[in-house]
Amino acid sequence: MSTTKEKKKFYWNEDTLNHFKFNSTYQNENQTIKEITLFVENECSLEDNETEEMLINDLIKQVYNK
Prior knowledge:
By secondary structure, this protein is of the alpha+beta class. The chain has helices spanning 14-23, 29-43, 52-63; strands spanning 2-6, 9-12. The chain is globular.
């Protein structure tokens, strides 16, 4: 889950990042992105001026170190 936002960067729980990083080692990128999308849509709460797309894109970048 997103815990705080500062300068358009989101901070994710280490367990969340590790989960998706681990899953990305045995499934393809599209599957991981779909899983991230479902996670954000179902488990994350948006704060002011945030969109699900922002959270999804940020989590993908952090999982893949892009």
